[in-house]
Design brief:
This protein has 509 residues and is α+β, with helices and mostly antiparallel strands. It is built from 17 helices and 16 strands. Helix 4 links the parallel strand 12 and strand 13. 35% of the residues are buried. Bound molecules: adenosine-5'-diphosphate, zinc ion and magnesium ion. Residues 6-10, 154-157, 196-198, 207, 210, 212 line the site of adenosine-5'-diphosphate.
Length: 509
Amino acid sequence: MTYETVIGLEIHAELSTKTKAFCACGYRFGAEVNTQCCPTCLGWPEASPVLNKSVVEYAIRLGLAADCTVNRVNTFFRKHYFYPDLPKGYQITQGERPICQIGRIEFFHRGEKRAVRINRIHIEEDTAKLLHDDAFKGTLLDFNRCGVPLLEIVTEPDLRGPDEVRDFLEAVRTLLVTLGISSGRMQEGVMRCDVNVSVRPLGQEKHNPRIEMKNVNTFSGAAQAAAYESKRQAEMLERGETYTQETRRWDEQKAETQPMRSKGDAADYRMFPDPDLPPIVLDDAWINEIKSALPELPVPKYERYINMGIAAAEAEMLTAQPERAAFLDACAAIGGAEPRGIAHWLFGAVSALHNRFGLPFEVSPITPQNLCDVLRMIEKGRINIDAGKRVLEEMFMASGKDSEADSEVDTGTNSEVNSEEPSRTDSKASSKKETPDQIIARLSLEQVSDEALLEAMVDEVLAANAQSITDYQNGKKNAFTYLVGQCMKASKGKANPQMVNMIIKNKIG
Ligand code: ADP
Ligand code: ZN
Ligand code: MG
């Protein structure tokens, strides 16, 4: 029997608003424990929650991007349950009528465009963090995360396999980042999901009962959990066993699921409208304003890059990395180089330099104009590819000293610092920065394309490498490459490699 896996996700995405959902507390990942809370997010009796307007705006942004209906009136509910990470004894969430409903999110899977239907997107608040302390042999609580705004995105059961789950989650992450509503930083746990899986014989229309795995916090975990459940359930069906709806725990370490609770003891959350929070009432003007300010969405962006002739893998990376995409768009606007080539350099030589110098892309010492200039000079034969790389390297070396020191201080911890850096670097750099032209002149990197000069050089190299010539003539292809290499070396890398190739071929081939 052939089986089909059916998967639906409930994705919790932490929003990057300046303050929490219902109070004025800020939230920064990694801040000292219990320093970012107040009576409201701790649920003390004097609490007076006030809805953060940005949370509503962010929810609408996502809803519009996901083709959802935005409900003009929607309400907050209290969902009651006991757990130590929930000091109020209830979580503020939304009920039957959430802010957004019925939409779809497109993504690419194995080069094909697919869509997952969205059932609902609602606003809710995060809970505290439990810290299990070995030395103390107990559990500690950090309430900083209490009341941080989340959007829960509930999909229809439209996914069919673990790889699709991973691609879809990546696409959602890219969408959130593109919309500017979440940092997308997985290492800070900003996206978590419940993975619902059922398995049915291929061709059967009715869904079998679902198994829900709660709070999976990595994309690979979600894919593995889906794969594990798909196999486990198919084996049960194969043995003729039936199963009922249940919640299981995904154990990342053991890579298996274990039972948590069955539908029978599913909680009754005693949901009722929150008397402290008035309904959200939205007017069309604001929604239209938000709609017209939406950025270009990932899927159209990806398609635009493909149409520009950029390779699929690079188009995908550009879609997921707004800074690089902006850089490429600026280069394309300047013109003079093929987008495909620009993308190639961006993810090749330029990325390699960023890695080597430990500089984040946002503080690149290279401007779009610089890269276009270098590429145009290569295209025109004024410098060769190696010299082009050398020019870029020089630009990194020149600006590297101060930027490098800065970046060591902020590495990965503080986004605010990063976002301020580009302007500082730009203004400082532009005043005294050497242009590619000046670098080429200073290092005399111009390519040698003078045929007589090159021929003399080749003759000298051939005279000194008689053995390699014999080897080549006896069929050793490597010997030819070696000879070209020797000529390039003799020219200090400046010879036109195509011409060197041709001259050697004419002489010994
Ligand atoms: P609950 O809050 O009880 O988990 P929701 O309606 O919020 O219920 O979420 C149900 C999730 O389970 C959705 O993502 C949906 O796509 C998924 N789902 C529903 N039925 C099935 C099924 N038979 N197989 C797999 N996933 C399912
Ligand atoms: Zn607070
Ligand atoms: Mg659920």
